[in-house]
Every structure is written in structure tokens, then in C-alpha cells.
Amino acid sequence: MFNRNKPYNDLPHLPPLVEVESKNILKKAIAANKALARMSMCCKQLPNEAILYNTLFLKEAKDSSEIENIVTTNDELYQALSSDRKISDPNTREVLHYMDRNCKHYQGK
Question: How confident is the prediction for the chain on average, in pLDDT?
């Protein structure tokens, strides 16, 4: 039975005894860095690279909001972004607020 007043003492001590930075992990980190650099160069060739980035941020906001049982569809989100009318669906509005709060520093705002 969980007791909030009793610490969970079976957690391993830090730092871990195993080597965290293995050759395999470092190779994957280098490959990921190269892939991100390639994507960045490709995005620079787009007429408006913010469209791609905003799409990714919107997907991240939607997926993160689903964890909190705030569910909407891609169609509702894109319609809300492309329309000047007031957003009536509270879930769609919350996902867009999440995106505004958490992705502004990436959008150059």
C-alpha cells in the first residue's frame, strides 16, 4: 500500500553505475544531429519554413493535450487557424493556447 509519508527506498542511487554514454548511444546522437542539420537545410529552401515548423508544433500540442484528455482533430485545428471566426470548441481552443504558450520561442515571436 502506498504511504506518502514513507520514502520509496528501492530507487537506485545516482549517478547510475552503468555507463550511460555508450558508443551505440553516441553514434545514434551523431546520426540524429546529421538528420536535423539536413532537415534544417531543406527547410531553408522553402518559401515559408514557418508553415512546416508550425505544423509540427501544432501536432506536438495536440498530442500533448491528449494526455490530459483534451481531444480534437487535425481538421478542427487547421480550420481554426485558417479562419477569422471565434473558436467555439473548447478542446480546439485549449490546444491552440497550449501551442501559443509552449512554442512561441521557436516561432520567432
Answer: 86
